[in-house]
Write a structure and sequence with these properties.
Number of helices: 13
Organism: Rosellinia necatrix (White root-rot fungus)
Helix content: 55-70%
Strand content: under 5%
Distance between the termini: 46 Å
Protein name: Putative C6 zinc finger domain-containing protein
Strand order of the largest sheet: 1-2
Length: about 350
């Protein structure tokens, strides 16, 4: 991992995230490395060279997400060829295996962020998410707390992907012919209920580090105060509440009766998509975004999605303050702030 191409990509991401132009980083011969890799015959790549390739690839994609506005984010994958490449290698070295899975997880999060911003079903990364979770669980032991937190976070990410596949439209380029969101499909009805049960099980069984230190509800007009002691807790729980909000919104929109023709009724605030959206906003606003290191494209996209149904001026003001803090921290989200000012009729 000390190759020039990896160092170049890593320094470029660091420079842009710190507010410096990407040209600050001196070129270190990355082009020659890629040219050599592309000229190798099929099957020649070793696990170590493959690791360098995936590192350069994912860091380059990360740079694009950090350096441009969310409206300009693009899909990383077109088709399944890259996934077949990812599955070709096995790593005897534990450190190499962890690094490989970390990069796969990062690029998956970027794809999910893109799909959340554009409300698309990320059906093309479901297989990759399954592979990541499967490999992560191999290393999971009861006594390894950091690994357990990682495994639990990855499992929640996969649940969000499944929720998005049920709730959002499949991209036109996809061959997956499924019923559009809002159109009743018995299989989706069952999948949605099963997925909500799995999310509930995740929420009840998450380790202590992923549970809030403080969780206080306030009178209507104020977001709940929800504080976590770690970035992992902030990120995983925003992902959880986003998944629940999507499924419950889909449940409301798809049909007013169940498969037996009986009326569906909400049974408490936790069965409301707006309740979960309020949770997303409460977690985000209490995370000190100008200081927290847990913010990434998927959290920005989830927060943006949660703000779309806000009608109270006091909550809108809190959201705009939070986004301004994120902007000050280096995220290029001016266009999101301007869109909300225009939508809510606030003076910019």
């Amino acid at each position: 991992m000390d190759s020039p191409c990896v160092l170049e990509a890593l320094l470029q991401v660091s420079a842009v995230a710190s507010g410096y132009p990407v040209e600050t980083v001196t070129r270190r011969g990355a082009g020659m490395f890629h040219l050599q890799a592309m000229s190798n015959p099929p099957g020649v790549d070793s696990p170590s060279s493959a690791l360098r390739m995936i590192a350069c690839f994912v860091l380059a994609r990360t740079l694009l997400f950090v350096d441009v506005i969310p409206d300009s984010w693009e899909r990383t994958f077109q088709g399944t060829g890259a996934f077949l490449y990812f599955r070709r290698f096995t790593f005897a070295d534990t450190v190499e295996r962890r690094v490989w899975l970390s990069f796969l997880t990062l690029v998956t999060r970027l794809e999910v962020a893109y799909c959340l911003m554009n409300q698309l079903a990320p059906n093309w990364i479901s297989g990759l998410a399954h592979q990541i979770q499967e490999q992560s669980e191999i290393s999971n032991t009861r006594d390894n707390i950091p690994q357990r937190i990682l495994d639990t976070s990855i499992r929640c990410l996969r649940l969000l992907i499944d929720a998005m596949n049920i709730s959002f439209t499949v991209p036109e380029a996809s061959d997956d012919a499924t019923a559009p969101p809002g159109e009743f499909d018995p299989s989706h009805f069952n999948q949605r209920n099963e997925l909500m049960d799995r999310l509930d099980a995740w929420q009840r069984s998450r380790p202590p580090d992923l549970k809030p230190l403080i969780e206080v509800d306030h009178p209507k007009g104020n977001f709940p105060t929800i504080i976590f002691t770690s970035g992992a807790g902030i990120s995983a729980n925003i992902i959880y509440h986003t998944a629940m909000a999507l499924l419950l919104r889909n449940k409301q929109d798809s049909t007013s009766t169940d498969e037996h023709g009986e009326a569906l009724e909400m049974v408490g605030p936790q069965e409301s998509p707006d309740w979960h959206a309020q949770r997303v906003c409460g977690i985000a606003i209490n995370s000190e975004p100008e200081h927290a290191r847990c913010w990434d494209p998927i959290m920005i996209a989830a927060f943006w999605l949660a703000t779309q149904g806000l009608n109270l001026r006091s909550q809108q003001d809190q959201v705009l303050v939070c986004l301004s803090q994120l902007k000050a921290a280096g995220w290029h989200i001016d266009i999101l702030i301007n869109k909300l000012h225009e939508k809510w009729g606030h003076a910019n």
